[in-house]
Specification:
The complex is a heterodimer. By secondary structure, chain A is mainly α. Chain A has helices spanning 23-58, 72-108, 111-125, 129-154, 172-196, 200-208, 213-242, 245-250, 270-277, 284-320, and strands spanning 253-254, 266-267. Chain A starts with 22 loop residues before the first helix and ends with a helix. Chain B is of the alpha/beta class. Chain B folds into two domains: 3-121 and 271-281 and 299-355, Periplasmic binding protein-like II (D-Maltodextrin-Binding Protein, domain 2); 123-261, Periplasmic binding protein-like II (D-Maltodextrin-Binding Protein, domain 2, 3-Layer(aba) Sandwich), CATH 3.40.190. In chain B, a hairpin with a 2-residue loop joins β10 (247-250) and β11. Classes of the chains: A mainly alpha, B alpha/beta. At the A-B interface, α4 and β1 of A face α3, β7 and α9 of B.
């Protein structure tokens, strides 16, 4: 291995040069290819397992499922709705907060404060979800009861806050708050990374035009980071969609589709429903649970594809500008 | 030069002490008087988990070369694994059906079938948390209407009629049921379906058939009832803690839960029809009017083969199950898991069935 002297151009692509390949190159390329293949094989294996085990439930007669007299689709509809609904509520709370925190760390906070704050946010990501679940049922849920009662009394005309309020606070709104806290660190960390990378030239140009600090952020940081914010939110959404333990512990689930967020009856999520019902299931009920897993798989796939599409469309519009 | 040597000798003494500690332990476990040797694998009902743990610890202490494994993976999983032939015995909150018991059993000699043995009786209780109320009487019909959400206020006349002396508040009832499928729910709904069919209007099921507030597991229900306001729920009796327990109307009187009252209803109940004499699946009579019987119990079974391909396995299963059925083991489970010991008359029937295992 000879390193070209500084300043000397690499060999011109005129003649054929035999690439030197050593054992290390071969081993490394095989490991890389193997790793790349393994992830595809794993994904394919999961898909095959889900589909094969789901088939009996998909064609099962009406009335073979818990909590409904209908077909599999009647069984899975409230669960799919609950999964998306809880995750969407969580993102609605988490994204603005995460963007704010990230912006504070990257552009507003003095450096001495910014670094410890970053560490604390990262620490939140290391707390296991069962601990969030415990926090949810023992602290958060009881604490929300007076708030929910107040909401039902004073804002009950608004469909989201329709009463009667839950007497224990274990509602989909409480779950969404827990989920928001859980996805906050991942979104914050990614947003911060992107914000920090905003080109200094852009920022100084904005100042040169007479922009205030907020105008500078709006003119340079946000446009530059938009696709990053979307990617970060989608990663957070992925975690919220698949979160199992915290939801299973905190939520008071029913087999219904309802937008009301402070009542005792809430739509359950797919992952929590599997965790709650698998131990006492047998036969077709197990197939039904796995089939709901397949539906979750598809939902996640669709969400991720849409996010990719949004990001790529945005990048193209940046380039054409 | 002196210090390292002293350190080494100190280490050596510690090591000797540690190993001898182990050895004492091993000696205890390896009590040579034990006659059972080998490994038994079981799995199933999580309700039995803590009882199985003490039963296993005791029998392994007495039989040093015996290992019993019990994985509390859930009744459904246990039954399925047993039917597939992966287990020596299963624990389950519901008995194998007659058809399942007679056919298709992987671990048993083909054509001989399996038997259900009711060895774990766990009383269930209705717990309430109402401000200013420390005793409550309920009958099945009222309980059914409360858990269906038909009675919504604590000061409803139908509740007040049963509790003339209680100061019931004018507050909304939050009735908490289990959000996970569970044998506890199945037995609770079975009680309501049998004792109040007109009010309940649903069959017994692992999954609660109506809406309302729900929580995961016994501990989740206890938590929701404790932390909520004006709440009511149902749990295994051992989990009730300091919460107020409702007395149930049986015949013309209100019966508070006791272990003896729970065991009495099992003894007074007939066996399911259409089964062999040694297959002791109980059809619990929740409508009993027997004085002092408490009808809200969960009966959990141990399921074993009638005939094992390997006689040594049969001996181990016989040994373990007859230990579990013994008054000492039942008393241990009562102490550590809060179950109700089998009544004397019933113990003999169970032991007879166990003796038939070949």
């Amino acid at each position: 291995m000879t390193t070209p002297a500084p300043g000397q151009a690499p060999a011109a692509p005129t003649g054929q040069i035999d690439a030197v390949e050593r054992r290390g190159d071969r081993v490394f390329s095989r490991i890389a290819v193997g790793a790349g293949t393994a992830i595809l094989v794993a994904l394919a294996a999961v898909a095959v397992f889900l589909i094969a085990q789901s088939l009996p439930a998909l064609w099962a007669p009406e009335g073979s499922f818990r909590g409904t007299d209908g077909t599999f689709w009647d069984y899975v509809a409230p669960l799919a709705f609950g999964t998306v609904w809880a995750a969407a509520l969580a993102l609605l709370m988490a994204v603005p907060l995460a963007v704010g925190i990230a912006l504070f760390i990257s552009h507003y906070a003095p450096r001495r404060l910014a670094q410890p704050l970053g560490y604390i946010i990262d620490l939140l990501a290391a707390v296991p979800s069962v601990v969030y679940g415990l926090w949810g049922i023992t602290v958060l849920a009881p604490a929300t009861v007076p708030l929910y009662e107040w909401l039902a009394e004073n804002a009950g005309w608004f469909p989201l806050f329709a009463g009667p309020a839950s007497g224990t606070g274990r509602t989909v709104l409480t779950v969404a708050i827990v989920l928001a806290v859980m996805v906050l660190p991942i979104i914050t960390a990614l947003c911060r990374e992107v914000f920090v990378q905003t080109p200094t030239l852009h920022q100084e140009a904005a100042y040169a035009l007479g922009a205030t600090w907020w105008e500078m952020v709006r003119m340079t940081v946000f446009p530059y980071a938009r696709s990053g914010i979307i990617s970060a939110s989608m990663l957070g959404l992925g975690r919220a969609l698949g979160e199992t333990m915290a939801v299973a512990m905190v939520l008071s689930p029913s087999a219904i589709i309802s937008f009301a967020v402070i009542q005792s009856e809430n739509p359950s999520t797919i992952a929590a429903n599997i965790a709650l019902n698998f131990p006492e299931s047998a036969g077709i009920q197990v197939n039904a649970l796995i089939a709901t897993g397949l539906v979750l798989f598809v939902i996640t796939l669709v969400v991720n594809s849409v996010a990719r599409w949004i990001v790529s469309r945005h990048e193209r519009s940046l380039e054409s500008r | 030069m002196d210090t390292p040597r002293r350190l080494i000798s100190a280490l050596a003494i510690t090591a000797v002490l540690a190993t001898s500690g182990c050895a004492v332990n091993e000696l205890n476990r390896g009590d040579s008087s034990g006659t059972l040797a080998g490994t038994l694998d079981g799995a199933g009902s999580s309700a039995q988990a803590s009882a199985q743990a003490v039963w296993i610890a005791e029998i392994q202490n007495a039989n040093g070369r015996l290992t019993v494994n019990y994985e509390p993976s859930g009744s459904g999983a246990g039954r399925e694994a047993f039917l597939a032939g992966g287990l020596d015995f299963a624990g389950s909150d519901s008995a194998l059906t007659a058809a399942e018991a007679e056919n298709g059993l992987g671990a048993c000699v083909p054509g001989t079938g399996a038997i259900n043995l009711p060895l774990y009786i766990s009383p269930l209780v209705i717990i309430v948390n109402i401000e200013g109320v420390d005793a409550l009487n309920l009958d099945a019909a009222t309980a059914a209407l409360i858990f269906r959400g038909e009675i919504r206020q604590w000061d409803d006349p139908r509740i007040q009629e049963l509790n003339p002396n209680a100061a019931l508040p004018s507050a909304t009832i939050t009735a908490v049921h289990r959000s996970d499928a569970s044998g506890t729910t199945k037995n609770f709904t079975d009680y309501l379906a049998q004792a109040a069919p007109d009010e309940w209007q649903a069959d017994a099921a692992d999954a609660f058939p109506y809406g309302g507030e729900s929580a995961q597991g016994n501990s989740g229900v206890v938590n929701a009832v404790t932390n909520g306001r004006n709440t009511i729920g149902y749990v295994d009796a051992s989990r009730a803690g300091d919460l107020t327990i409702a007395a149930l109307k049986v015949g013309d009187e209100f019966v508070a839960y006791t272990r003896e009252a729970a065991a009495r209803v099992v003894e007074a109940s007939p066996l399911e029809e259409g089964r062999a004499d040694d297959d002791l699946a109980i059809a619990i009579d929740r409508t009993t009017t027997e004085p002092g019987a408490y009808p809200l119990v969960l009966v959990s079974y141990l399921i074993a083969c009638r005939e094992y391909p390997n006689p040594a396995d049969a001996e181990l299963v016989r040994g373990y199950l007859s230990w579990v059925a013994s008054p000492e083991a039942q008393e241990l489970a009562a102490e550590f898991a809060g179950s109700a010991p089998l009544s004397e008359g019933f113990t003999d029937r169970v032991l007879d069935a166990i003796e038939g295992i070949r």
